[in-house]
Amino acid sequence: MIHKPVLVQLVQHLRVGGLETMALTLAQQLSAQFDVHLVSLEGDEDSLRANWSKLELFPKVHGLSKPEGVSVSTISNLRNYLVTHRARYLHSHHLGPLLYGGAACVGLKVGHLHTHHDGWSLERGNQAKLTRWAVNLFNPVSVADADSVAEQCQRMGVRVDEVIANGVDLSHFRFGDKLLARDALALPLDAKILGCVCRLESVKAIDHLIQALAELPGNVHLALAGGGSQRRGLEQMVQQLGLEQRVHFLGHIDDPSLVYHALDLFCLVSHNEGAPMSLIEAQACGVRCMVNDVGHCRSLLHPTQGVLLANNQPRTIAQGVISAFLEPAKVSVMAQQLRSFAIEVGDGERMANRYRLYLQGNAS
């Protein structure tokens, strides 16, 4: 019996999110050549599976239950996991997994590849120093997921060996029926609906989006899919602004394409971003997008059908929405243009092929 080489995808916390979804896409795309394990520093297997139904599709999920702060025992537990499962490759994502994965691999014949998913986080505290130190000490193949991320890393002295653009499984994101999607989500059928699929955290600037809604006509609604630490505060803001009938908190939706199908305009107005997967997903569903000009958003936005904001102040957001709704567009033609662009910039199969070549040829 021929055994496939074991590839461990290591993330900080295996929960709904852009880079975590990217890790799952890689696991699916690489499963023919590799025995892929999904390992999370935080959480245990039961809690991880309970909070993300998509993990049902992946038999090899493991949580290391890392406690808060620095944990030497987590390094030991990860090393034991790599040895026990005879891991051949480790693919880490973000700083924590880089540090713990790099330390766990010392002395083992495990090829280490690391992906940097944003550059803006390097500007916080000692992130740049730690990342630079870890890349130099553990010497993984160092990959950035976008040109802008590579430029930011290199500006901060972090070595980057290759740029491999993120991608999504486009078979899951196709055109859909708007009215059926709205009915399924209990959204108004005759409104103009803005929306976002994201974690409700401060970096996403959802408060700015809600404030912008207050400046827009009453037939414009906002649908928010996702959970997070900011939800309660955002709900209070909605009440204070009297927008309870126009803002719809959908919570976690297993199939985000259903949300995209319901929208007239997908809005990503974050303070900071890397290379957001949701932007590719929405356009693959034929939905027009409006984004703040941060990170790699500009490059992932359709150059003529998208709306690029100069900043994410509420007034600017409101003006962007108005301009998007005023511009006439032949919906069927626009949708096809958006999907073709998404395939061009964010095909998950192409991403996986690039990683496959790098794993087989360089992370050894």
Textual characterization of the structure:
The protein is 41% helix and 18% strand. It is of the alpha/beta class and 364 residues long. The protein has two domains: 6-167 and 347-361, Rossmann fold (3-Layer(aba) Sandwich), CATH 3.40.50; 170-346, 3-Layer(aba) Sandwich (Rossmann fold). The strands form two sheets. It has a seven-stranded parallel sheet with strand order 3-2-1-4-5-6-7, sandwiched between helices. A six-stranded parallel sheet has the order 10-9-8-11-12-13, with helices on both faces. Helix 9 links the parallel strand 9 (220-225) and strand 10 (247-251). Helix 3 packs across helix 4 (95-105) and helix 11 crosses helix 14 (331-346).
Please give a quick description of this structure:
Keywords: Transferase. The protein has 364 residues and is an alpha/beta fold. It has helices at 18-29, 45-51, 72-84, 95-105, 127-138, 147-155, 178-184, 206-213, 231-240, 256-262, 277-284, 297-300, 314-326, 331-346, 348-361; strands spanning 6-13, 35-42, 61-63, 87-93, 111-116, 141-144, 162-163, 192-197, 220-225, 247-251, 265-268, 289-292, 307-309.
How would you characterize the largest beta sheet? 7 strands, parallel
Tell me the fraction of residues in β-strands, as a range: 15-25%
CATH architecture of the largest domain: 3-Layer(aba) Sandwich
**pLDDT < 50 runs, ≥5 residues:** none
Name of the CATH homologous superfamily of the largest domain: Glycogen Phosphorylase B
Mean pLDDT: 94
* Distance linking N and C termini: 23 Å
Give a count of the beta strands, DSSP E runs of length 2 or more.
Answer: 13
Number of domains: 2
CATH fold category name of the largest domain:
Rossmann fold
Adjacency order of strands in the biggest sheet: 3-2-1-4-5-6-7
The rounded Rg comes to 21 Å
